[in-house]
Design a protein that fits this description.
alpha/beta, TIM Barrel, eight-stranded parallel β-barrel, three-stranded antiparallel sheet, 10 helices, globular, Luciferase-like_sf, oxidoreductase activity, acting on paired donors, with incorporation or reduction of molecular oxygen, Luciferase-like_dom, Bact_Lucif_Oxidored
Length: 341
């Protein structure tokens, strides 16, 4: 099955002699450079994780707009934005602007969010769950508002004495980007949230971890999650085709430098553990081997086979040139042999 292949960048920086990314400026500018390099190499997407109160990428829309202005073909997106922290109307304006700058290439991944660096960090952003609700409920409520606003329907009563003339009827946040509503993805940890995302008409982003619901290998549980999602999408009768992305750490070893960095990862396996008090998760393995061995291993990954989009998690602190080398190795030494290209 042919696939779109892109990268997912967490955008870490640290003031360490071992890091090529020492500052926030380094992380942002190198993210733009890597997106440009990925487009030149023939990759299909540049995606960025969002974390708050951390030395990682946080505010995605200035970065996405800059990449949109410097590229012409690849999809640009997030994987994912934590909706507990978001003002959905302001977000709709920012996302609309970034999408228009990029010519309609934005693929916006959102979710309830994962454990963050501070306790209830969304409180510092001015958000509080409604009485009887929790932070997960709040994230879904923010999402419902965002999805409705992105339809482009007017809802705000115009001022009878505005500073500038208004068009007729109720008003909406501007700029509005037609089509963006059909390019929203939900990062689902469980089968239930994958089903909910399908019912809402959001595409599925499945990460390198998911809720452990059966004790089976990670890729098997993820493949079953994809099936649940597609069945629910079909039942909902949405007009657009559903999309599914999975993320993987794939490190082809073709040089001595590759072997020094990732040779020890060859024996990696799935891991099980708790990421929250009430959430036991299964974490997928890292794939690190010579290309011919990778082809054999990846051919058995049922979730990759089921997905239409593969996002490669990149070790961004190793620098743009090295990460471009990893992408090129996957695109030329691995993907063709698996029928992804």
């Amino acid at each position: 099955m042919t696939k779109k292949i892109g990268f997912l960048n967490f955008g870490h920086w640290t003031d360490s002699p071992h890091s090529q990314v020492r500052t926030a400026s380094d992380a942002l500018l190198q993210s733009i450079e890597l997106a440009e390099a990925a487009e030149e190499l023939g990759a299909d997407g540049a995606y960025f994780r969002v974390h708050h109160f951390a030395q990682q990428l946080a505010s995605p829309f200035p970065l996405l707009a800059a990449i949109g202005a410097r590229t012409s073909r690849i999809e640009i997106g997030t994987g994912v934005i934590d909706m507990r922290y978001e003002n959905p109307l302001y977000m709709a304006e920012d996302a609309g602007a970034a999408d228009l700058i990029a010519g309609g290439r934005l693929q916006l991944g959102i979710s309830r969010g994962s454990p963050e660096q501070v306790i209830d960090g969304w409180r510092y952003f001015g958000y509080q769950p409604a009485e009887g609700a929790d932070a997960s409920d709040m994230a879904r409520q923010h999402t419902d508002v965002l999805l409705e606003v992105l339809t482009g329907k007017g809802f705000a009563q115009p001022n009878p004495r505005p500073m500038f003339p208004n068009p007729p009827g109720l008003l909406r946040p501007e700029p509005h980007s037609p089509g963006l509503r059909d390019r929203i993805w939900w990062g689902a940890a469980s089968d239930a949230t994958a089903r909910w995302a399908a019912e809402k008409g959001m595409h599925l982003m499945s990460s390198t971890l998911k809720a452990d619901e059966t004790g089976e290998p990670f890729h098997v549980q993820q493949r079953k999650q994809i099936e649940v999602f597609r069945d629910a999408w079909a039942a909902a009768g949405h007009e657009v085709e559903p999309r599914v992305s999975v993320s993987r750490s794939i490190m082809p070893i073709t040089t001595d430098q590759d072997r020094a960095y990732f040779g020890h990862e060859g024996s990696s396996s799935d891991q099980f553990g708790n990421i929250e008090a009430n959430l036991r998760a299964v974490f997928g393995r890292t794939y690190a081997a010579e290309p011919d061995r990778l082809v054999e291993q990846l051919a058995d990954d049922e979730a990759i086979a089921a997905a239409d989009t593969l996002l490669l998690t990149v070790p961004n602190q190793l620098g743009v040139d090295y990460n471009a080398h990893i992408l090129e190795s996957v695109l030329t030494d691995v993907a063709p042999a698996l029928g992804w290209r």
